[in-house]
Amino acid sequence: MAAAQLLSDVSAFEAKFKVLEKVSFRGETTLVVERDAITEICRFAKEQLGYTMLLDISGIDHFGDEPRFELAYELYQFERGDHLRLKISISEDALEVPSVVCVWATANWHEREAFDMYGIRFRGHPDLRRILMWDGYPFFPLRKDFPLAGKPSNMPDVAFSKAAPLEGGPFVTMPSTATAKDREPRARGE
Amino acid sequence: MTEVGAIASYDSKIEGNVIVTRLDSAINWMRKNSLWPMPMGLACCAIELMAAASSRFDIARFGAEVMRFSPRQSDVMIVAGTVTYKMALAVKRIWDQMAEPKWCIAMGACASSGGMYRSYAVLQGIDQLIPVDVYISGCPPRPEALIEGLLRLQRKIDTEHSFLAQKKDLLASLS
Questions:
Q1: What is the rounded CA–CA span in Å between residue B2 and residue B15?
Q2: Alpha carbon of B86: minimum distance to chain A alpha carbons (Å)
Q3: What pTM, to 2 d.p., does this model score?
Q4: How far apart are CA B118 and CA B82, in angstroms?
Q5: Can you say how many angstroms the Cα of residue B11 is from the centroid of all Cα atoms in its chain?
Q6: Interhelix angle for A2-16 vs A38-47, to 10°?
Q7: Under 8 Å CB-to-CB from B145, ≥6 apart: which residues?
Q8: Residue A188 has pLDDT above 80, yes or no
């Protein structure tokens, strides 16, 4: 019954907004929608269909593809326990999407995180600052072209960062076909 | 009044209350036996730090039980846990607010070297920002290891010549 209700929600979306793609996989429903209509779509989902909770906003980087970025909005309906995922694509040339903070207050920190990690800007966000990295950090670390070790940066009198050493040291294992016992770095020097 | 020509003899009323020592030794003795820690608990090492302060291990035995959450009142900062770049700013600020003399213990692998977090987000050792006196290995170290670190810090404090150094500076400025 819950599934039937979810299907009727999907057709309600299709009747009111342009749905670019509809994916159903292992009981998870994903709707790809238009970027500029995301605020209205989210308001409709919350006020008309009862998706009162925004679980998460996650960014996705398809480095090398166009459009490069995607945002996934995870919605939750308490009465039936339904999940709904909304997706929008964002081109690297126009890295700005409408904010949904006016719909769910919790989107504030989720959008700040997406901005911090991917550099996606949210139009209408009340306080778009970095949330995990320090203010003034010049990079967006979850992008695919950013190395895990980080890049050196320096803001005089505020903060600096250095690239972390990724080879050597007791906590780094090397890729090889040897057994775990032989790969174990503590055993190597002994 | 002693008689003229009498041999100076042991006076129990005075001798029992007088200790002869060097000023530096007395200062060091006082400092090392009342180390007030600033618990900079950032990750799981902080749990071991709490255990070290609790009844089973009891760092009160070594005069370090008075955890001060005000940097103005603490002597030794125990950096217990992963220092992210974002938190590093706060750690440095609190360190700068602590009054001299002050010491720092880097507790555990993360605070000493970044540990297993070889990542853009983690400072690779708190010694890149503030001077560290004692490093404690372990992930996390057991409370015994922290106690050993405290004792080593006490030994280090015992070798300082703070007054002697001032006296030398004074004599040099006078001559």
A1: 16
A2: 5
A3: 0.79
A4: 11
A5: 39
A6: 140
A7: B136, B137, B138
A8: no
